[in-house]
Amino acid sequence: MTDKYVVFVRNPVHLDLSDTTKGFADMMVCEHDSPTEFYILDKSDGKHVATYQVNNFYFFHIGNAYDYIDPKTGDVNIHVDIVSYREEHYPYMDYSISNLLDPKKPLQNGTLVRYQMDSVNKADPAKICRGSVASAIAGLPCELPRVSKPASMDPNYRYTYGISGIGVSAPGTEVPIGRLSNGLGAVHPTVYGSLFKSDWKTGLFKLWTPSNGESCPTEPIFIQRPGATEEDDGIVITITINREGTHSILVGLDGKTFKEVARADMPQVYALGPHGSFVEGDFGL
């Protein structure tokens, strides 16, 4: 969502229902020759106001979106920041157990891309408009993009946090989390072995990689420092598993420097799953 609009992004994918004995993933059919579409609805009344098309891409997660006034035209434009894939299949398929265990099928590299829809306030909902690529964070294979809570829908936001797969070492040999090469459990580079912080203003990014043979990190969550006046003034938290696989570790990174500043051993192993949130409060404790 943006401040004024709801944006639905349609993956060029449909379900083949001719054989319902198949699993959900096996029924997915990619439309390689179809554009990816953005449907824009007005928040105030829910009416469809515009449809935009861009060249074919697939996506799994959206980082942020916002509307803004174009200083050159005075029109309302929309930016949507998405981890974009231009590969042979929908990225959802990468996370099947069979694919994770098969080194002949490497994970696709997603790129954080900013898509632009111009003059939404003047668009004819009965016609198809053309969207474009405004910018991208080059050289950063990534997924699970997150922003700070105040940065959501903010046209001036800069920073995105997430997981990255840039050439890092495999986790400890005692923790088979990653891509297995054979039945012996030898570990190849992890699915996503690092966290990233990217900057839309500069186009640059920083990485943090777990040390001491720890597992790949979970999706990061940014917690803003109380009273902060800068967007990246806060702590980024993530979870890894220790080398022996006996317990998880809660890790805190400085939001500005992206360097580790704190860690705490947890009493047990927590699954390395995506998604979560930070809720402020004392909850009666």
From TrEMBL:
Which molecular-function annotations from GO does this UniProt entry contain?
A: carotenoid dioxygenase activity; metal ion binding
Keywords from the UniProt entry: Iron, Metal-binding, Oxidoreductase
The cofactors named for this UniProt entry are: Fe(2+)
GO BP: carotene catabolic process
Where Fe cation binds, per the record, is at H61, H275
Q: How is the cofactor bound?
A: Binds 1 Fe(2+) ion per subunit.
Q: What is this protein called?
A: Carotenoid isomerooxygenase
Organism equals: Fusarium oxysporum f. sp. raphani
Q: Gene name on record?
A: ninaB-0
